[in-house]
Amino acid sequence: KNEWLQNLGLDRSLFERYHEDAHMLDTQYRMHEGICAFPSVAFYKSRLKTWQGLKRLPSVLGHTGKESCPVIF
């Protein structure tokens, strides 16, 4: 590699440099916790959590009493 670039600290890509200083954001605020469970286990070693204050908006289709159901078709 070019010695001049190495002296400037540019011998590695931004991706390589940013990877070293990555931080896990462990709380998500949008998905139902039932939907969040899969990516949490599959990709984040069960560390991704759903914010406990997450409120489900009323259904625009008029479904009532289904607050525990993450998806209604």
UniProtKB/TrEMBL annotation:
Matching InterPro entries: Coronavir_polyprotein_1ab (IPR050534), DNA2/NAM7-like_C (IPR041679), P-loop_NTPase (IPR027417)
Which SUPFAM superfamilies does the entry link to? Answer: P-loop containing nucleoside triphosphate hydrolases
According to the entry, every stretch annotated as the DNA2/NAM7 helicase-like C-terminal domain falls at 10-73
Among its keywords, does the record have ATP-binding?
A: yes
Its domain of life? Eukaryota
Q: Name one GO molecular function term.
A: ATP binding
Check the record and name the Pfam families matching this protein: AAA_12 (PF13087)
The protein's UniProt keywords, in alphabetical order, are:
ATP-binding, Helicase, Hydrolase, Nucleotide-binding, Receptor
Q: What is this protein called?
A: Peroxisomal proliferator-activated receptor A-interacting complex 285 kDa protein isoform 2
Lineage from the top down?
Eukaryota, Metazoa, Chordata, Craniata, Vertebrata
